[in-house]
Amino acid sequence: MLFDLRGRGRRRTVQVIYLGLALIFLLGFVGFGVGVGGGGGGLFNALTENNGSSSASFTAKVAAAQKHVKREPNNPQAWLALTEAQLHQSTEEAYSNPTTGQFTSKGKQLLAQVSHSWNTYLTLQAHNPNSTLAQRMLTVYGEEGLNQAADEVAALQIVIPTKPPSAALYATLAEYSYKAHNPGQGDLAAAKAVSLAPSGERKRIKAYLEAIKKNPSESAASAASSAVPSGTYTATVGGKKTVLKSSGGGTLTSVPATTPAKTSSTKK
What we know:
Strand order of the largest sheet: 1-2-3
Distance between the termini: 46 Å
Radius of gyration: 22 Å
CATH architecture: Alpha Horseshoe
Shape: globular
CATH class: Mainly Alpha
Strand content: 5-15%
Largest sheet: 3 strands, antiparallel
Order of helices and strands: HHHHHHHHHHHEEE
């Protein structure tokens, strides 16, 4: 039977176990070195660089950058500075939950402003745009941010040429190409990701990307769960071990714990 979700607090516990096991086989591999998602990471969270600055200083920097773009609306560096200042501001508690890393509704509104500033910069700086900031924009456009696949692809296309060949980056490019309804580009990126992956990870990466291609609207976590290989796994929750079994099709079921038989003693 699947987990019983009726108990108090049980639903959240199951979500943590399920997602953790599903992602450990894929996102632990695909997630490194990419500034994306979910909010995305985090799994790829590149927005947590606050350099010890205070909320007040973030606000002041954004205000100063906004004045700069008003004075020089055609200056790409002014828009770049505004984008960076807004990204720093998005790390404040009003915009993102410090515990979960999820963006608040106010945070999503700020991300839309970040996107506007970034796209204005790209229009003015068509050649050799800033790849470091492009990598940070992956979080903005990922699933946990604005969830805009086409913009995520555009940012990845700026980042990838500046990095050593990476299965993680190509897998992310394939994923968001499929989500942006560009299967041709997705297939090319997927093939590259699989070729660059360690031999022991290739089947799981391929299965994950095939799941995304089949259903582009599927979340990364859901697709990752389908890549969990068959086997029995143990998770510790609240100090207690829970045994889970995977059939390899994305379903995890609980295995009843066995209680050792009590030994009887004969009183002399």
